[in-house]
Design a protein that fits this description.
By secondary structure, the protein is of the alpha/beta class. The chain has helices at residues 61-73, 91-95, 122-128, 134-152, 198-203, and strands spanning 3-5, 10-12, 34-36, 41-45, 48-53, 102-105, 160-163, 170-174, 177-181.
């Protein structure tokens, strides 16, 4: 789950283990200090435009499905997996956005870490032994987020792209955008250096 904060409230996107029904927009203003945002919501914080799109494939979806069925057999309706948890590409909406400064997603384009083109690693390999379509679905989803990136770049040049999901941290600058993968419980404070006085830029050696 990714989130960003202002002085008075927090806005959250759905992760792969969040019930998508809570993030369809009807609860966005239900709480006074928490906004559960629908996919493709743009939040404007002090002139910084932030686009958020949640969702991702859960690598542990098969064990979650089985556990949910076990609960159902004893009469307990407990949801542990949602078939609509995945990232959904909306090309038409993406074409309407301009001036986006920050993108926040749960998963990431396929050129960001982890790059899975040469293998997925031990954890995914273990879950894939019981889930024949897992690796194909993971590959397709990352390709879909890359298409999101390609469409956005036509009219936007985001300064930052934040994502989570992979339980590790990483950052790099690619084609002018700073990509930052946030690990578990990691917090990153975004600062718009463009708002600082020119004298301060000279102080720190920025020409």
């Amino acid at each position: 789950q990714c989130d960003w904060s202002s002085d008075v409230c927090s806005s959250d996107l759905r992760g792969n283990h969040d019930n998508p029904k809570f993030f369809d927009g009807h609860l966005e203003n239900y709480f006074t200090n928490l906004h559960l945002l629908a996919d493709y919501t743009v939040v404007d914080i002090e002139g910084t435009k932030i686009l958020g799109v949640g969702g991702a494939v859960s690598v542990d979806r098969r064990p979650r499905m089985r556990e949910q069925l076990e609960y159902a057999r004893v009469g307990r309706e407990i949801e542990l997996h949602w078939h609509d948890e995945v990232f959904v590409l909306d090309k038409e909406k993406l074409k309407t956005f301009e001036g986006i400064d920050i993108v926040v997603t749960h998963t990431a384009p396929d050129f960001c870490m982890p790059v899975n083109k040469t293998g997925f690693g031990y954890l995914v390999d273990q879950f894939a032994m019981d889930d024949a379509n897992l690796k194909a679905d993971l590959t397709f989803e990352r390709e879909q987020v890359t298409k999101m990136y390609e469409i956005l770049k036509e009219k936007n040049n985001p300064d930052y792209w934040f994502y989570g999901h992979f339980h590790r941290d990483w950052n790099d600058k690619i084609e002018g955008t700073n990509y930052r993968l946030l690990g578990i419980n990691e917090i990153y404070e975004y600062r718009n250096w463009k708002d600082y006085e020119p004298d301060w830029e000279k102080e720190i050696g920025v020409e």
